[in-house]
């Protein structure tokens, strides 16, 4: 029985190959191995696009630009750094002339230690960012803050981000919560495919209101994606993630997106006292 079935499969395979050659399709495989052209037949593909992925993936109804800052703080200065950041951010929020707002501020709990992470939103895109920087550069109190802050830092870097159109809009939330920032360095050229898959997958991660925001870089390290999640605690995080695997379709998303990733990182973060995301 098994032999008859094997012969049947071989005959079907031979019939397919004969059809390929008779229709001239074999020319497309002339310079590839059997493994290569078979993989090309069954691989998950995304149609070629003729527009920047920033235009295809970001929200059209808003012109928000985001900035994420990573500050590595001297361990002995962390408390003073947090206090000073609190005072400056409150002052900026009270001044309506600045077209920016802090979405969230955190200290890393697990991941890179003695680190502060800040997420800013500029309502109005690049013009708002330029206007804000111009005003800050003439704000003597802010310049004094930057000078004092520099004494507390070991290193710092930032990125400019856009938000994915299919992700939740980041809004203030009450706590207490812990936050996970999952960062993915993608293979160059795969951002559209990542977006296509996650536009379907995000529905599997909404039941516990854990999805906070999804972003991709425009300036800084390129082809970097940040997913921000909120959980009650680490146990809740584990249970929520385990539940996703019980839903039909989640495994498919993981299967197709894992090959797109060059590197990934997870930070567990605790909100600072003044953070709108608690």
Automatic annotation (TrEMBL):
<keyword id="KW-0809">Transit peptide</keyword>
<dbReference type="InterPro" id="IPR012577">
    <property type="entry name" value="NIPSNAP"/>
</dbReference>
<dbReference type="GO" id="GO:0000423">
    <property type="term" value="P:mitophagy"/>
</dbReference>
<keyword id="KW-0496">Mitochondrion</keyword>
<dbReference type="InterPro" id="IPR051557">
    <property type="entry name" value="NipSnap_domain"/>
</dbReference>
<comment type="function">
    <text>Protein involved in mitophagy. Accumulates on the mitochondria surface in response to mitochondrial depolarization and acts as a 'eat me' signal by recruiting proteins involved in selective autophagy.</text>
</comment>
<dbReference type="Pfam" id="PF07978">
    <property type="entry name" value="NIPSNAP"/>
</dbReference>
<dbReference type="InterPro" id="IPR011008">
    <property type="entry name" value="Dimeric_a/b-barrel"/>
</dbReference>
<comment type="similarity">
    <text>Belongs to the NipSnap family.</text>
</comment>
<feature type="domain" description="NIPSNAP">
    <location>
        <begin position="179"/>
        <end position="276"/>
    </location>
</feature>
<dbReference type="GO" id="GO:0005759">
    <property type="term" value="C:mitochondrial matrix"/>
</dbReference>
<protein>
    <submittedName>
        <fullName>Nipsnap homolog 1 (C. elegans)</fullName>
    </submittedName>
</protein>
<keyword id="KW-0072">Autophagy</keyword>
């Amino acid at each position: 029985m098994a032999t008859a079935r094997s012969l049947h499969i071989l005959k079907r395979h031979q019939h397919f190959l004969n059809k390929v050659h008779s229709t001239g399709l074999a020319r497309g495989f002339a310079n590839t191995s059997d493994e290569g052209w078979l993989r090309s037949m069954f691989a998950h593909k995304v149609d070629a696009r003729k527009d920047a992925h920033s235009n295809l993936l970001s929200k059209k109804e808003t012109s928000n630009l985001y900035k994420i800052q990573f500050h590595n703080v001297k361990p002995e200065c962390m408390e003073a750094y947090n206090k000073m950041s609190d005072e400056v951010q409150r002052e900026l929020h009270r001044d309506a002339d600045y077209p920016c707002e802090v979405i969230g501020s955190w200290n890393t709990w697990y991941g890179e230690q003695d680190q502060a992470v800040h997420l800013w939103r500029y309502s109005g895109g690049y013009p708002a960012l330029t206007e804000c920087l111009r005003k800050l550069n003439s704000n003597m109190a802010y310049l004094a803050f930057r000078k004092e802050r520099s004494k507390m830092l070991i290193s710092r870097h930032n990125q400019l981000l856009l938000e994915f159109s299919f992700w939740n809009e980041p809004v203030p939330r009450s706590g207490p919560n812990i936050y996970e920032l999952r960062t993915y360095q993608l293979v160059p050229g795969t951002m559209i495919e990542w977006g296509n898959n996650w536009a379907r997958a995000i529905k599997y991660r909404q039941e516990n209101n854990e999805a906070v925001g999804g972003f991709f870089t425009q300036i800084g390290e390129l082809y970097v994606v940040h997913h921000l999640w909120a959980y009650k605690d680490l146990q809740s995080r584990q249970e929520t993630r385990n539940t996703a695997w019980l839903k039909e379709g989640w495994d498919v998303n993981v299967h197709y997106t894992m090959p797109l990733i060059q590197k990934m990182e997870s930070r567990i973060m605790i909100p600072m006292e003044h953070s709108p995301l608690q």
